[in-house]
Write a structure and sequence with these properties.
The complex is a heterodimer of chains A (about 140) and B (about 130). Chain A has 3 helices and 8 strands; from the N terminus they run H-E-E-E-E-E-H-E-H-E-E. Chain A has helices at about 20-30, 85-90, 110-125; strands at about 45-50, 50-55, 60-65, 70-75, 75-80, 100-105, 130, 135. In chain A, the strands form 2 sheets. A 5-stranded mixed beta sheet of chain A has the order 5-4-3-6-7, covered by helices on one side. Chain A is elongated. A 5-stranded mixed beta sheet of chain B has the order 4-3-2-5-6, with helices on one face. The radius of gyration of chain B is 32 Å and the shape is elongated. With about 130 residues, chain B is an alpha/beta fold. The chains are: A alpha/beta (about 140), B alpha/beta (about 130). At the A-B interface, helix 1, strand 1, strand 2, strand 6 and helix 3 of A face helix 2, strand 1 and helix 4 of B. Strand 2 of chain A pairs antiparallel with strand 1 (about 40-45) of chain B, so a sheet runs across the interface.
């Protein structure tokens, strides 16, 4: 009598679709990645508890104020009196009209400079601001 | 002859075996370089220039912060972490209350943010930031 040998089960995972999966992931990361555009000034952000996420990263201007009162907009050092002019130009940009100003201010900055900059922002009609802060637990 | 043999081989395909390797390499590159750090902070809308409204004095609570970071709420010195509770009480009494935050020019930004944070925690939506003095 002839015994039929047990049929061999294939133990391997099918690898033929692996490149497709990898490509899919690759395209996802390529599309979703936003490269860090700005280096900014050295600031230590304050802590806060009731913070919210920034909506959309594309039409945001970043404004840094360091402890010594240096002001930088999107990596360019500028004077406080220039803020309104620069912000106004950003608002007129046809491709990316400015929607929000993210303020990255050092926790030791005196409020005088902060208010001066805010007045400049009001001058340029850039009224939506966000005080960047780290979450405190 | 050996040379003839080589010529006759007609191999026009691009080798696809290394495709997955290349894709993996790119994938790892993008995985490493992407920074998923979300910007977070306290949002605020500034009033437009020249937009000044008259407010009844009974609807205003003055919150003063001096250069040393001491807080004065309605002529009473309080601690920062007390603000939320106090303002919440006041908002229950008067929902139209406007909190007017006034700082000194030398007040540290940290104190200001902590105060704003406390106000947000008390669900105070009507916040006014006055020009600093000093």
């Amino acid at each position: 009598m002839k015994f039929q040998g047990k049929q061999k089960a294939e133990p391997g995972i099918p690898l033929s679709s692996l490149p497709d999966i990898v490509f899919l992931l690759l395209i996802f990361f390529m599309v979703s990645s936003v490269f860090k555009e700005f280096q900014g000034l050295p600031v230590t952000l304050p802590n806060a508890r009731k913070i919210e996420k920034l909506q959309g990263k594309r039409d945001v201007a970043y404004l840094w104020i360091s402890k010594d009162g240096e002001v930088s907009i999107d990596d360019r050092i500028c004077r406080v009196s220039d803020v309104s002019r620069i912000m106004y130009q950003k608002r007129l940009d046809p491709m990316h009209p400015l929607k929000l100003v993210s303020m990255k201010i050092d926790q030791g900055t005196p409020m005088g400079i902060v208010t001066d900059v805010q007045e400049e922002l009001r001058e340029a009609d850039a009224l939506n601001i966000n005080y960047s802060a780290k979450p405190a637990y | 002859m050996l040379i003839e043999k080589k010529k006759s081989r007609n191999n026009s395909d691009i080798p696809m075996a290394s495709l997955a390797d290349i894709a993996f390499l790119l994938l790892i590159f993008f995985l490493v370089t992407t920074t998923i750090d979300v910007d977070r902070g306290i949002g605020l809308s500034l009033p437009a220039k020249g937009e000044e409204t008259e407010v009844r004095t009974k609807n205003i609570t003055n919150l003063l912060i001096n250069a040393q970071g001491e807080i004065l709420l309605d002529n009473e010195v309080i601690a920062i972490n007390e603000i939320a509770r106090r303002i919440e009480q006041k908002l229950q009494e008067n929902p139209n209350l406007i909190v007017s935050v006034k700082t000194d020019r030398e007040t540290k930004y940290d104190v200001f943010i902590k105060t704003l944070d406390e106000l947000k925690m008390a669900n105070a939506t009507r916040i006014s930031i006055a020009e600093p003095t000093g």
